[in-house]
Each structure stands twice: as structure tokens, then as C-alpha cells.
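Predict the 3D structure for this chain.
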Amino acid sequence: MFLVGKIITTHGINGEVKVKSETNFPRFNSQSKLYLEKEKQMIPIHINSHRIHQGIDLITFNDYKNINDVIPYIGCSIYTEHLSEELKENEYYYEDLIGLNTYNEENHLIGIVNDIIEVPQGIILEIKREKDLKLIPFVDEFIKEISLDEKKIIIHVIEGLL
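Done. Predicted structure below.
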């Protein structure tokens, strides 16, 4: 299962909820096969409507039409079973990068990708090291090679980066 969002609150009184999206792909359409995680159980949901309001995804699901029907789902995460979109060359799902070992060009271990952070300037890899966290811009100048098969990323290290 892959995390695609989290219900953060309700919106209005007609069963609509605000979702913090964790994906760059359009996931909240009526054809999507999605699941809510509630009390460690995966509950299938059907999306009835989706719109974006002030940068936040708003959805209705499972034919709920009342705020009282959706309040129990606040804080629940939304998952999908598979990632089906075809990626272009040198494009990756965040889920595929998290957990990869990072090495410098001399093949010395730097750390493990702990998280992916989106900022207005681009994407940053959060690298967990033995004693600290380091932030590496996800740009060609620093990311020299990614091998999902070998579960590793080669990073060009410049002075001050680590």
C-alpha cells in the first residue's frame, strides 16, 4: 500500500473533507481504488467528488452527505494498492527513493534517504546519518546516479554539503 493523503478536517456540512495530498499524481477520482486506514483496518472507499480549493484537495466519498458521517475519519490516512502511472526516464516515486542508501562518488556510505521534502525551489532529500540529518537538493548537480535495483543513490559531495 502506498500513502496518497491524509484527511485533515471536514469542509462544510455536506460530507466533504480536506485531504493533505502526499502525491503529485491525480489520485482522487472516481476510478481510483483507494483505502482508508482506520483502527489498523483498511476500508475501501469510492470517491464521489474531488476539487481543489486554495491548494487543498477536497473530496466526498462513499456517498456520505453529512458532516457527522465523515467526522470519524478525520486523521485517517488514504492509501492506494499500486502505482500505475508510467514514469518518464529519470522520474521516480517518492516511495521508491525513501530507504535507499546514499553514497559519495568514492562509494562511501553517507546515510539513508529518510524523507522527501517539497519546497518552492524544488525537492530535497532528507538523509539520515548516524548522528544527524542532512538535506541534499534533488538536482543533477548533486544526484549523479540512482539505482533502484541496487537500492542506492550516488551523490556528488561538495564542500559544505555534509
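Residues 94-155 form a domain with the SH3 type barrels. fold (CATH 2.30.30.240).
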